[in-house]
């Protein structure tokens, strides 16, 4: 991990307002693009791209494509991490945002299975992989823009702004789906838990096409950034690595493993609270696999209410992590996630009030665990491989957590005869793994991002990736 600072960090070369807006807006757009697929994967894609006589099989097929993007994310992390650590953060962030925007727009104009057969399904898979590839490079770059430009003692707070893009993207995307559904004519005698015929025919395409407008705005904002002083210093002193991937794997593999498992509970919790819960909340009580039986509109409004707590507590988590430390804060929050998974079913059993409480508590915990990651993961790695290292840890965790979470949740939902108690147990088990990783790790609150080599924040020096020694200062910044 980077060594504690012995002096003040270099002054940011970007205005703070520009840093916050650029990091927030970019991730908001990226997560908007990513999550409108997640919503469509539940609402319409099983019918349009994965025809099957068994609705559960079609849903699982749709989730499998959802998970394919998670597999592509580590590949994107390696590719964009290489660019970011070699060429700089700004150029790389522009390329990743443009890639995501093009892929999302093209999903909005794809033919369906009825029009093009399995070619349509293959094209959807290709675009979904492109989305995951782009998001693999987005998060770490946005987190670095925020944290490398943060003032002293506020790095975790600044790191929450790219994290805030996740709840904002969810709210914008699902809010747009709601507006479109409300404006389109309803189908006479239709099941209220299902979207209208007009929505299935063409209405679902609008959020994907609208992404082009958001991407254009995001590109304009990011084009005004300049490189952080931290990265500029690394480049000027000749410490830019020719092969960042090789350096980070050889010299910082422990941080990669710890970072991956530290993110695990966060990913599992979020995708259970969004993708799985949307399926469970809308499934009829008398269905083959019974659910809560809410209409689409009602349940999404309940989810958006819960996501407001996600956004609020993402910001709350930053000052807490700056004051008490990232590790300490996350240990307590992860322990709470373990308990939350165990009380999942009793909460839902209380009726609508219990369901709302379930969503509020789940998304509150999500904000508290997600917020500090914007600072913690970059702090595990030195400047020369920070883009690559933080991106790989973040996105490999997406395979272990997010890629399989919806799929496993549906299987456990069926195994529980419609009760999600096994799903809650699964969440608790994943949170235990994260808790172990946190206990094995070390605090990163007092490390400096202005360094050339990695070192642990102990009283002794640590050997860097190239064999050099980095002295550790005795006082925190």
TrEMBL record:
The gene is yhjE. SUPFAM superfamilies: MFS general substrate transporter. Residues 449-477 are annotated as: Disordered. It is a multi-pass membrane protein. The keyword Chloroplast does not apply. It is found in: Cell membrane. One of its GO terms (molecular function) is transmembrane transporter activity. GO terms for cellular component: plasma membrane. Residues 19-445 form the Major facilitator superfamily (MFS) profile domain. It comes from Streptomyces ambofaciens (strain ATCC 23877 / 3486 / DSM 40053 / JCM 4204 / NBRC 12836 / NRRL B-2516). Its main location: membrane. The chain crosses the membrane at residues 58-80, 92-110, 116-135, 156-184, 204-221, 256-274, 294-317, 329-349, 355-380, 392-413, 419-440. Keywords: Cell membrane, Membrane, Transmembrane, Transmembrane helix, Transport. Signal peptide: none annotated. This is Putative transporter.
């Amino acid at each position: 991990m980077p060594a504690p600072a012995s002096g003040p960090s270099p002054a940011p070369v970007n205005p703070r307002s520009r840093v916050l807006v650029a990091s927030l807006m970019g991730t908001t757009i990226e997560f908007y693009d990513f999550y409108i697929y997640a919503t469509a994967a539940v609402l319409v894609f099983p019918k349009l791209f994965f025809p099957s006589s068994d609705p559960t099989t079609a849903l699982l097929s749709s989730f499998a494509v959802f998970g394919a993007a998670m597999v592509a994310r580590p590949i994107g992390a390696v590719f964009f991490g290489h660019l970011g650590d070699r060429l700089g953060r700004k150029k790389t962030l522009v390329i990743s945002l443009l890639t995501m925007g093009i892929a999302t727009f093209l999903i909005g104009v794809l033919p369906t299975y009825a029009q093009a057969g399995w070619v349509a399904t293959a094209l959807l898979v290709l675009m979904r992989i492109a989305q995951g590839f782009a998001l693999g490079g987005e998060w770490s770059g946005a987190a670095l823009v925020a944290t490398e430009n943060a003032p002293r003692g506020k790095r975790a707070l600044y790191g929450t702004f790219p994290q805030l893009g996740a709840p904002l993207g969810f709210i914008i995307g699902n809010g747009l789906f709601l507006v479109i559904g409300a404006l389109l004519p309803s189908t006479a005698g239709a099941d209220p838990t299902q979207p209208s015929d007009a929505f299935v025919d063409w209405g679902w395409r609008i959020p994907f096409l609208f992404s082009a407008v958001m991407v254009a705005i995001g590109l304009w904002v990011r084009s005004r950034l300049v490189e952080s002083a931290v990265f500029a210093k690394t480049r000027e002193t000749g410490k830019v690595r020719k092969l960042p991937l090789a350096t980070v794997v050889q010299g910082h593999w422990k941080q990669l493993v710890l970072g991956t498992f530290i993110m695990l509970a966060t990913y599992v919790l979020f995708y259970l609270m969004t993708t799985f819960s949307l399926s469970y909340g809308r499934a009829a009580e008398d269905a083959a696999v019974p659910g809560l039986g809410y209409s689409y509109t009602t349940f999404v409004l309940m989810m958006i209410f819960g996501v407001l707590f996600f956004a609020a507590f993402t910001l709350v988590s930053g000052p807490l992590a700056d004051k008490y430390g990232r590790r300490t804060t996350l240990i307590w929050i992860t322990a709470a996630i373990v308990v939350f998974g165990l009380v999942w079913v009793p909460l839902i059993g209380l009726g609508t009030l219990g369901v709302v409480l379930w969503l509020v508590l789940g998304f509150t915990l999500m904000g508290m665990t997600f917020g500090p990651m914007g600072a913690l993961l970059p702090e595990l790695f030195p400047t020369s491989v920070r883009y690559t290292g933080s991106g790989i840890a973040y996105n490999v965790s997406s395979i272990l957590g997010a890629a399989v979470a919806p799929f496993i949740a549906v299987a456990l939902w069926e195994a529980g005869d419609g009760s999600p108690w096994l799903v809650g147990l699964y969440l608790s088990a994943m949170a235990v793994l994260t808790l172990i990783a946190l206990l094995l790790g070390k605090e990163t609150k007092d490390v400096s991002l202005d360094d050339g080599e990695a070192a642990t924040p102990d009283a002794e020096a640590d050997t860097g990736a190239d064999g050099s020694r980095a002295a550790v200062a005795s006082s925190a910044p």
